[in-house]
Amino acid sequence: MAKLLFQVPTPLPSKFPKSQVLSPLDELLWAIIGLLLTVSGVFIEVSLSIPTGWPLAWGEMQAYSLGSTLQVGAVLLIGCVGGKNAAALSQIAYLALGLSGAQVFAQGGGLGYWQEPTFGYLLGFLPAAWLCGYIAFRQPRRFDAIVLSCLVGLLVIHLLGLVYLTGLSLFGSLPEGWWSAVLQYSFTPFPGQLLMICAVSLIAFIFRRLLFY
């Protein structure tokens, strides 16, 4: 009876075994990788290669631009494979690097970049990366969770981008007009970015299977 009264309760099982939780060193390494991917992704345009004779015949491959760069995919990928802390840290470093004057943004860099209409989308990278990593790691290596995390991250990026465009428009700092900017920076690249996150989700799922977490 005494044993029963003073028995220490068994702790509830965690969703992630200790072996599947990233160490601080792993998170730092993923943050560095995420920073490098984000910087390099801005210079790489995403395209889809389709045979010219498809679907009737196979001919030469024709590349069709998806209207976006790999940068958004890099932001979401690092969240899916590196977790929320590494993803957020990589984007904090990216924004700090760009605002300090390094030419890592699409149109350059520096403190004056806040006047660019795309700056709101860049600000959206930070919460999007954190949320993507948070949702992707709520369950150990589930493909549907990874896809959902990418979708949420993409929506957050565009939401903050649209809010920022609205603010610039209200203060008269949007020469092309609000609707033209929305078409250019959200509506045009969004379908291609949806296709891109399909690839990102698959790559992240494979990476996590290979790395056992």
Automatic annotation (TrEMBL):
It is a multi-pass membrane protein. It is found in: Cell membrane. Its main location: membrane. It comes from the Bacteria. Pfam families: BioY. GO terms for cellular component: plasma membrane. Coiled coil: none annotated. Signal peptide: none annotated. Keywords: Cell membrane, Membrane, Transmembrane, Transmembrane helix, Transport. The chain crosses the membrane at residues 28-50, 62-81, 93-113, 119-137, 146-170, 190-211. GO terms for molecular function: biotin transmembrane transporter activity. Belongs to the BioY family. PANTHER family: BIOTIN TRANSPORTER BIOY. This is Biotin transporter. It comes from Acaryochloris thomasi RCC1774. The lineage of its organism: Bacteria, Bacillati, Cyanobacteriota, Cyanophyceae, Acaryochloridales.
